[in-house]
Every structure is written in structure tokens, then in C-alpha cells.
Amino acid sequence: MAAFDATARRGLLLVSPTFVYVLLLLAAPLATVFAFSFWTQDFLSIDYTVTLKNYQEAFSDPIYRTLLGRSLLIAGAVTTVTVILAFPIAYFVSFHVAPERKALWIFLITIPFWTSYLLRVFLWKVILGFNGVLNSSLIGVGLIDEPITLILYNANAVVITLAHAFAPFTILPIYVALERVDRSLLEAAQDLGETRVSTFFRVTLPLAMPGVIAAVLIVFIPTIGDYVTPRLVGGPDGLMIANMIQTQFLKLNNAPMGATLAVLSMCAVTLVSLVFLMLNRRYLKTS
Amino acid sequence: MIGLTNVEKYYGDYHALRGITANIPEGEFFSLLGPSGCGKTTLLRAIAGFEHLSGGSLTIDGQDMSRIAPHRRPTNMVFQSYAIFPHLSVAENVGFGLRKRKDINRDARQRMVDEALDMVGLSGYGSRRAHALSGGQRQRVALARALILKPKVLLLDEPLSALDKKMREQMQAELRRLQRQIGITFVLVTHDQEEALIMSDRIAVMFDGQIAQMDAPQTLYRRPSTRRVAEFIGVMNFLPAARVGDEMFDVAGLGKAFIDRSQVMNGAGTDCVAGLRPETLSILFDGSDVPDHSFEGTITDRAYYGDMTYYDVVITPGTAPVTISMKNRAGRPILEPNTKATVAWDPRSLIIFGA
Amino acid sequence: MKGGWLRIYAIVYLIFLYLPVALLPIFAFNDGTIIAFPLQGFTAKWFLELAAIQALHSALWNSLFIALVTATLSTLLAIGAARASTRYKFPGKAPIMGAIMLPLVLPEIIVAVALLVVLLQLGIGLTSWTVIAGHTLICTPFAIAILSSSFQGLDASVEEAAIDLGETRWGAFRTITLPLVAPGIISAFLIAFTISLDEFIIAFFLTGAEPTLPVYLWSQLRFPTRIPAVMALGTLLLLASLIILSIAEYARRRGIARTGGKDSGGFL
Ligand SMILES: Nc1ncnc2c1ncn2[C@@H]1O[C@H](COP(=O)(O)OP(=O)(O)O)[C@@H](O)[C@H]1O
Ligand SMILES: [Mg+2]
């Protein structure tokens, strides 16, 4: 038992600075936010009586519901679009690119993301705008006469921009999962009479699911908390809950309401993620 | 030299070593042999100091080791994975342990490294990068790196298991030669019984964290103390037997015979089991005399190995066959299944175990 | 041809990925204040203008300082945590590591408001150090992820061999483990540095009187006349990122070459 204690002590000692840091700068603040959500703002000071008033307001005022609902919807759409667009690329690099060139492809895929995030979002505004790159090129080519307005200052623009922003974060986990698929399993499936298409759906895809699931969570969770993209390209119909949280904290100076919305979004994210994981638990068990 | 007394080791609830007691004298080539997971590595690492004992004591050269850190023990280890430092050259690997020694200057160190490399047949490889070596060469570097520190005990954890068959046989001979030459104690862990038999002065056979038998190779092979040891080392046929007199046993299919006390293992009661090695049985070919002890049987199967042929022979229809190995000699035919055969056996090579 | 359609799709997808990035240098050298086609002709004046904006310089230095301190802190914290998680068993390991990695799956705005609330409650003023505190929190899990795979790839018996040959535990770590995971440490440091440099949401909430570069950029995006200069700045930042990335990749390759491992995939 002495050995166990010695290594345990050494491990705890090594991890403790990081853990203490997280306790002080994450756990304690999150607990504070949670507490705040039960307090109220009384002009410049905080009223510390515990009440559910904020939650009542959050559920009754349609604007909060709309924003939270829209955030979940947009995040869901962004996730779906991003993963569906990214999967073929991951598949292509893993299965159709020569091994010695795979690193190059991954490199090519990640390079655009070393540009400032803000600028990338802004550039999408430039591309999608009324006089933007897309419209002016399409008019120039003669495909359209009038600029398309469907693609800026609405939810579509948010989806396109975020699908772009999260591209490498989806491609990489799916690619890693596909790389782990034992190629002889695919040959075995075909040897047992599956076609290439049915092999994909019955063997490749299920085995790659852990990567897909990781990709989904990697996109979905931060998307809820994004407020740059909605602000820059979303227009009034594209605003999301994070914009409201920011407004409550920084503009309206109503931290308790902001805290309540933060807690509610966290709950929503956790709930959706857990349901998603539950639905896919059979794919995660084997590994 | 190495004294192990009632050594116990727990991993949480798992009882990995159960009361190991053994004395390994100076200069002995000692092997720990047993199936995977029986605790060989754990015991070796306990001697090296990488595992704390949960109970019992360990002494080396009469000195208690419980408070001695691994880097201060007079032991050195050749790891199963060789654990060559990948970022250092061969010479830097071999000289690694000498850097701590203030009494050895650069020149002396260089000379010692050269000598050590020479000893393992790697002269001129000093400047090579460690990762550019073959398995056998890594093995030699690991050996030189440990031996250069002149340990009292060299510990080797399955050092040859990663090598191909030819290389392994060559290294077995070389390790044996090296051990004789420098005369220190070697403790070798292996799951390969043949390797243990070839190399060791003495072998401890381990099962489930315990030593089942500790003896010289011949004794171990010819007088295994339990059926399990007998089965683990080589091949043995088991036949039901009964004690019918003081030293008289009746073996199923073979008949009665006098068996010397030395061949009767502890725990053999009235009902017991007789063990016979395949090479102690021999099929009589036409023209040879029928000796005192023989039986008739039917060949049911045969496996041709080039130098040897293994036959399965059923004595009484409906019972399990016995395996017989025959050397393939000039003029000796390879018998086909379904032929009858007369088989000679010798009571002196038979062992009686408890049922 | 095998994967023919997929290859076409991949190329179209790459164009999609590079579209915004490609515009960056185009507009940076475009002689017009409006960011739209058709282009107006070539100029380098936006780059010269950059040199004159004082606020930009201080934002840049501020960001570099924050990124440097953040990267150092998170790498140090990550070395301990990654080693503890890959080498040792200790009670409460799963929840402890879970808590440390939590910022990876927490929307950044939550981290930002949580820290802001506490700082305001405690009456601590917002400075570069508050940004560093927030950035260290989100960069550490990334650094841990990178370092864990470095520590994992290390044969545990290599360190034991050093101890066996007479090194102390610390000596073995210093002479054997550290050099072998050095490429991982460099990668972790550079990743943390880059994340911090580019991070906007937390910085926006926690920055004090001195904005970071992204916060400054955000404020400039509202002024159309400033946009071309911002494009020029973006171009320079991209170049800087690519140089950092190349260094990281070089360090990784060298690490692999030195230990004779197989090159398994690219950076990250
Ligand atoms: N660090 C450890 N923690 C828990 N169990 C262990 C540890 N090391 C070894 N064991 C267990 O102890 C038993 C003996 O292991 P080992 O000594 O490595 O066997 P072997 O004879 O194959 O070398 C095995 O069942 C193994 O699973
Ligand atoms: Mg072992």
C-alpha cells in the first residue's frame, strides 16, 4: 500500500497547481454566476435576497425564449451543415490521399484558421454583402441581375460563416476516427458480400461515429456562446442568446439577469449534449 | 547474495506476489519462468526497487533493501523494451550511468564505453544514433549500458522475446558466455521454457504469484514436482494410476511396475497420475527385441517435424492417446495412422503425481 | 479515377476555406477605401498607415505581452497536469482532470461572464492580468491535450532505465523526459500563444483600459475608413502566424527525427 500512496501523492502534487487554478478561476466564478442568477439588480447595487424572479422573467418574456430557441436552432443548423460538409473531406483525406501526402492536406486545411477569427468573420460580411464579392462576381458573370439579399444579415449568413469557422475542428476528429478504422475490416465486409456503399454505412460510418460525435460537440457547444458572428453578419434576425448575455452584463448593467441567461444556456447546452450522447451511446461503448 | 523472504505484493486488492522465498547465490544464472501475468516482472522490478514490497524482506549482499532507492541499488536492469534513450547516441547511452561518477574522467569514461561496446560486439558503433539500430543491436546496447556500471546483479526482463528465432538463439549463447565471463548474478525473466532450460543454473517456476518449484534445469525437467509444472515445461503424457503396493504402481494401459520413491511426488495417494515424457517412450520397429516393459497400441495421428516425428498412440480404445516422439534416422520408416505399434517404456523415467 | 468526385468536392471545399483568407491580401493592397470589387489598383499605403497608428501599436504590444505570459503559465500548468494524468494514479483523478479540461467544452462567453462577475464582486480592476487569468484558463486544456500525447508516447521504462543507471527521479526527468517531450512543450506553448493572441470574447469582457489587438480590431471594424488598414494588419498577422506555425512544425519534425519515430500526421 505504501507504493500506492507514494505515487498517489506524487500525482496529486503535480496536478494540484492546475486544479487549484481551475477551482479558483472557474469553479468559484461559476458558482458565483449561479448565485447571481437568484439575486436581483437594484439600480446600482445588488439585492441579495434569493428569488426566482429572474427565471420567471426569462421564461415569460418572449425575447429571451426566442433568443435561446434561435441559438439552439442556429447552433443545430451550423453543426449539421458543418459536419455534413466536413465528413467527405475527412473521408477523402483518410481513404483517397496517399499516406505521404496526408499531412500536407491536413496542413492545407488548417492554414486558413491561423487568420484572426474576427477578420475571418468580417471578410464573410464582405463576401456576402449587398455589394459584396459574391454578388458583384455573380452580376459580373451575368448569372443574376440584382444582388441576392438572402445571404447577409440573417441566420443563413451566420450558418455559412460558422460552418467555415469550425471546419478544421470538425474535419480533424472525424479524420482521426477514420484513420483508426482497420482497413482489413472493410475488405472483410466486402468479402462477406457487402457492396462498397453498404460497407460504408454498415462498417465505416459506425466505426467513425466517435469522431463524428466529438465533432458535433466541438461545434455545437461554442456556437451557443458566440456573439461575434451574429453581431457582424446576423442582422437583427440573427442575434443569439450570447448577444443578450453580453448586453445584460455590459450595456444594461443587469448582471443577475445576464447570469440567469448564462445558467439557462449552460443547462440547455448540457441537456442537448447529454441527449445527443445518450442517443449515440452504442457507438461509444466499444472504444 | 539475493535473499527474498516471504515477499508479498498487492496492487490494490490484487495479490500479485504471494510469499516468495528464495536465495540466489553469487554468480548464479537464475531464471524466473512462468506464464504471462504470473508476477515475474513484478518480482524483478521489486528487486530493482521499482516496486515497493507490501510484505516480506529483500536483501542483497546481506544488506536490507527496503530503504534503498532504485538508483542506489547494486543492480542494473535490461528492460523488456530495452528502453534505449532515443535522443542519445550509442556511446552516450552506454556511458549514461558513468556521468554521475565523479571519480571517472572523460578519457576513462571513453575507454570504459569502448570496452563495454567491445564486450557486446558493437565496437565502432559508438557514434550511431540509437534509433538507427536493429533489435539485436539495441539489446546489446542495453546490456553494455547496464554492465558498464559493474552491478552485483543484472536483471533481465524477457530480453530476447522481441528477437527473431535465429537472433534469439545466438543471443542466448552470448548471454550465457557473458555471464560466465564476468561472473556476476543474472536474474532472467522469461516465459519461454526452452530458453530457461538452455541458459539457467537454476529456474524458479512461478504460477499465480507463487514459486511452484525451484531447481536446476535437469531436475526440473525430469522430476517436476506437480502436474502443472510438468505441463508447463515440455510435453508430458498423463495416465491414471493406482498404488497397489509400497513401491508398486498399476498404470492404466501399461500394467504394474516398481517405481522408486524418488519418482513419487508429494501428494500421491492411492489414486494417482503417472507422467511420461514423449521421448521416454519408443516405438519398436521390426527386428528389435521386445523389452520387459512394453505395450501394444494403434497410431491415430502423426506430425512430421523433419528431425523428429510425433505419434499419437491409443493404448485402450476409447481413452486419450499418448504422444511419442521419435528421432528420424536413416532407414527408419515414418509410420502411417491406423497401423499397430509396439511401444517400449521404462519405469525409471516415469513420475507419479497426486491425482 | 478512384475518388474522382470526392477530389472535385475537396478542391471546391478548399476554395471555400481559402476564400476569405485570399481576400485579405487583395484588399490590403487595394487602392480604395471601400472593401468591394472592382479593385482600384495597387498600393502599399495601408501598411505605411499602420506604422502611424499609435493605439494599434500599444494594442499589439499588450496582446503580445498577454500571449507570452499566458503561454508560459498554461504550459507550466499543463506539464504538471499532463504528467500526472499520464503517469500516476491518484484518488479523484477522473473528476479532477474533468474539471481541468472543462473550459474546452464551455462556451467562452460563460467563462468570460463568470470571471467578470467575480472580479467585479471582489473589486479587482480590469487589467491585462485579468485577461491573462482568463486566457490561461482556456489555453491550459489545449496545452494539456498536446502534452498528454507527448507523455503518452514516451516509453515509461526509458525513465526507469535512467533511474536504474543512477539518476535520481528528478535527474531522470530532466535528462531524459524533458528533452524527449521538448517538441510537445514547444507546440503547447505556441498553440497557447496563438489562441491567446487571437482570443476575442474573454478579452472583450476582461480587458481594462488597454485593449488587446482583437478588441482594438473590433472597435475599428465600425469605421469604414479604417478597414483597409485593418486588412493590412490582418495580412501581417497571417504571415506572423504562418511563421510561428512553421517553427512549430519544424520543432515537431526535428523531435521525430531525433527519436526516430514515424511521422504521424501534421501539426495539432
Ligand atoms: N502497476 C500495476 N497495477 C495493477 N496491477 C498490476 C500492475 N503491474 C502488474 N499488475 C498485475 O500483476 C500481475 C503480474 O504482472 P507481471 O509481473 O507483469 O506479470 P508477468 O509474469 O507477465 O511479468 C498481472 O496480472 C498484472 O495485471
Ligand atoms: Mg512481464
From TrEMBL, chain A:
InterPro entries: MetI-like (IPR000515), MetI-like_sf (IPR035906). It is found in: Cell membrane. Residues 68-276 form the ABC transmembrane type-1 domain. GO terms for biological process: transmembrane transport. It is a multi-pass membrane protein. Its main location: membrane. The keyword Nucleotidyltransferase does not apply. One of its GO terms (cellular component) is plasma membrane. The chain crosses the membrane at residues 12-39, 72-93, 105-130, 150-178, 199-221, 259-279. Belongs to the binding-protein-dependent transport system permease family. CysTW subfamily. This is Spermidine/putrescine ABC transporter permease. It comes from Litoreibacter roseus.
UniProtKB/TrEMBL annotation, chain B:
One of its GO terms (molecular function) is ATP binding. Coiled coil: none annotated. The keyword ATP-binding applies. SMART domains: AAA (SM00382). GO terms for cellular component: ATP-binding cassette (ABC) transporter complex. Gene3D superfamilies: 2.40.50.100, P-loop containing nucleotide triphosphate hydrolases (3.40.50.300). Keywords: ATP-binding, Nucleotide-binding, Transport. PROSITE patterns: ABC_TRANSPORTER_1 (PS00211), ABC_TRANSPORTER_2 (PS50893). It comes from the Bacteria. GO terms for biological process: putrescine transport. InterPro entries: AAA+_ATPase, ABC_SmlMolc_Importer, ABC_transporter-like_ATP-bd, ABC_transporter-like_CS, Mo/tungstate-bd_C_term_dom, P-loop_NTPase, Transp-assoc_OB_typ2. Residues 2-233 form the ABC transporter domain. This is Polyamine-transporting ATPase. It comes from Litoreibacter roseus. The lineage of its organism: Bacteria, Pseudomonadati, Pseudomonadota, Alphaproteobacteria, Rhodobacterales.
Automatic annotation (TrEMBL), chain C:
It comes from the Bacteria. CDD domains: TM_PBP2. InterPro entries: Bact_Polyamine_Transport, MetI-like, MetI-like_sf. SUPFAM superfamilies: MetI-like (SSF161098). PROSITE patterns: ABC_TM1. It is found in: Cell membrane. One of its GO terms (cellular component) is plasma membrane. Pfam families: BPD_transp_1. The chain crosses the membrane at residues 12-39, 59-82, 94-120, 126-147, 180-207, 227-248. Keywords: Cell membrane, Membrane, Transmembrane, Transmembrane helix, Transport. Residues 60-248 form the ABC transmembrane type-1 domain. It is a multi-pass membrane protein. GO terms for biological process: transmembrane transport. Belongs to the binding-protein-dependent transport system permease family. CysTW subfamily. PANTHER family: PUTRESCINE TRANSPORT SYSTEM PERMEASE PROTEIN POTI. This is Spermidine/putrescine ABC transporter. It comes from Litoreibacter roseus.
